[in-house]
Automatic annotation (TrEMBL):
Residues 12-226 form the Tr-type G domain. The lineage of its organism: Bacteria, Bacillati, Actinomycetota, Actinomycetes, Kitasatosporales. This is sulfate adenylyltransferase. The keyword Ribonucleoprotein does not apply. Transmembrane segments: none annotated. It comes from the Bacteria. Its EC number is 2.7.7.4. SUPFAM superfamilies: EF-Tu/eEF-1alpha/eIF2-gamma C-terminal domain (SSF50465), P-loop containing nucleoside triphosphate hydrolases (SSF52540), Translation proteins (SSF50447).
Length: 442
């Protein structure tokens, strides 16, 4: 049986990263150049791009078409949806999320960056850092993306001038540091000409750092599951009740973080009842140890009332249960978020009713100040909210766990996703059992 160490060593060969930037900064061209020059484009794909480019009067293949797959994207020349691409080099495998640059689609950047281990933020060398650049930096910081690359693009149109690059890099790094971004790597590139994307540029001998691909191939990725506390959201209760397994009772789901071990004392939340892991089944076999992100079935030594939405965690270090939530959110919907709004809160596999009690502040992107008591959050706004839920939640602070510290607010009427939230410290413990109140006055 494989050990945890063996698996984490293999897992470091996979990197999830997202690209972001303002409209016309050249994201799609950069991604296309990255795929083309790393020889990750199939012959028929390249032929289709060449044909589409010729039909539009271009003399060379428009590599942006490799990622702008929607018809509306091709017609408007912008990226609308998150385009996921999978490619590999001899050194690492990649899952790339090419996110939109238009302010209207900032919500899609939240989707693409939510699981990213690195973010590549593009800036047009002629325009420098603009409002949307600051917004993308803020989203990357809120989502705690551990590595941020600043790709100063279109250096060919800026005469490959080092002072232009240095000024932009200094401004962005200072802004990102104010947001708490731990690391920024600035790289001067020309996606159209291929400078410093995969191969080093012959036009910028003053730059001695890595190319974009070199950085992505070598950036350290921490994937040791033992570094995080174990969290197991239950998706389904399995009770086959067959002659072969008359007493089988297991709880199926995907381990969100950490490691589970047979014999370990655990607590089922929000009820707070305790037991011991009696067995773990993975791919039809019993195992002694399982780790994130494996999908397994957990069996407990005691016959407890456990169902979808419950969270199984080691008794030592179990999260606090609360009905009062303070969080930083990015509002995604066109309809504003108002104090008093009735919403559904989805956290892992659990969905509960909630009320927006207050919106204490909204982030001002220009100077990173907090605008107090804004009264509402509009689409793409980032702010603080306080919520009261009808039932208790086992929330971790987002700073400690991106998996169990995040949640969504949903419109209870039509199921529209309203807001993406990152939980802060739970500031008030709630009761241990769900409310029997069928109304919204929690």
């Amino acid at each position: 049986m494989s050990t945890v160490t063996d698996t984490t060593t293999a897992a470091t060969s996979l990197l999830r990263f997202a690209t972001a930037g303002s409209v016309d900064d050249g994201k799609s061209t950069l991604v296309g150049r990255l795929l083309h020059d790393s020889k990750s484009v199939l012959a028929d794909q390249l032929e289709a791009v060449e044909h589409a480019s010729r039909s539009r009067g271009a003399t060379a293949p428009d590599l942006a078409l490799l990622t702008d797959g929607l018809r509306a994207e091709r017609e408007q020349g912008i990226t609308i949806d998150v385009a996921y691409r999978y490619f590999a080099t001899p050194r690492r495998r990649f899952i790339l999320a090419d996110t939109p640059g238009h302010v209207q689609y900032t919500r899609n950047m939240v989707t693409g960056a939510s699981t990213a281990q690195a973010a590549v933020v593009l800036v047009d060398a002629r325009n420098g850092v603009v409002e949307q650049t600051r917004r993308h930096a803020a989203v990357a910081a809120l989502l705690r993306v551990p590595h941020v690359v600043l790709a100063v693009n279109k250096m060919d149109l800026a005469g490959y001038a080092e002072p232009v690059f240095a000024a932009i890099a200094e401004e962005f790094t200072a802004y990102a540091s104010g947001l708490g971004v731990p690391e920024v790597t600035a790289i001067p590139v020309s996606a159209l000409a291929g400078d410093n994307v995969v191969a080093p540029s012959a036009h910028m001998d003053w730059y001695g750092g890595p190319t974009v691909l070199e950085y992505l191939e070598t950036v350290p990725v921490v994937t040791d599951p033992t570094a995080d506390p174990a969290r197991f959201p239950v998706q389904y209760t399995i009770r086959p009740q067959t002659a072969e397994h008359p007493d089988y009772r297991g709880y199926a789901g995907q381990i969100a973080s950490g490691v589970l071990r047979v014999g370990e004392p655990v607590t089922v939340l929000p009820s707070g009842r305790t037991s011991t892991i009696a067995a773990i089944d993975a791919l039809g076999q019993s195992v002694d140890v399982a780790w994130a992100p494996q999908s397994v079935t957990v069996r407990l030594a005691d016959d407890l009332d456990v169902s979808r939405g419950d969270l199984i965690a080691p008794t030592a270090g179990a999260p606090q249960v609360t009905r009062d939530v303070e969080a930083t959110v990015c509002h995604l919907a066109d309809q504003p978020l108002l104090p008093g709004a009735r919403v559904l809160l989805k956290h892992t596999t659990r969905t509960v009713r909630a009320i927006v009690k207050d919106i204490p502040s909204r982030l001002t992107l220009d100077d990173l100040s907090q605008h107090p008591a804004p009264g509402r959050l509009e689409a793409n706004d980032i702010g603080r909210v306080t919520l009261r839920t009808a039932e208790p939640l086992a929330l971790d602070p987002y700073a400690g766990s991106r998996h169990t510290g995040s949640f969504l607010l949903i419109d209870p009427g039509d199921g529209t996703t309203l807001t993406a939230g990152m939980a802060g410290e739970a500031f008030a413990a709630g009761p241990g059992r769900p409310s029997d109140d069928e109304g919204w006055d929690f």
